[in-house]
Amino acid sequence: MTPELAKDLRVLRMRAHLEPDRHYKSTGWGSSNPEFFQVGNVLDTQHDYLTGRISRRKRKEHLKDELLSGDYIRERAQKRFAEAQRKSASGRNGNKKVFRPKKNRLRR
Hints:
The protein is mostly helical. 37% of the residues lie in helices and 0% in strands. The longest helix is centred in the C-terminal third of the chain and has 19 residues. The protein starts with a helix and ends in a 19-residue tail after the last helix.
């Protein structure tokens, strides 16, 4: 199994996290990849020439590239990343007060 296929299977396993609004049936693979699976290409027919065809620019080589090219998933991933960064910064370095030494004053 190539690393690209392993990544594509991983994306399929985590697709419920990419689109939480949709419900996906569980794969039943557990934590390992399936023993047998098939990979193929979708061929365009003459009937789909203008309506159902995807242009060459929009075609991607791998599943993860195709998913990340969509606007909805890209925006959602950016939001989730920003939220994770904000959570990791809070409490550690995010909300600490800046330490300023007290000025030396002469006491009378």
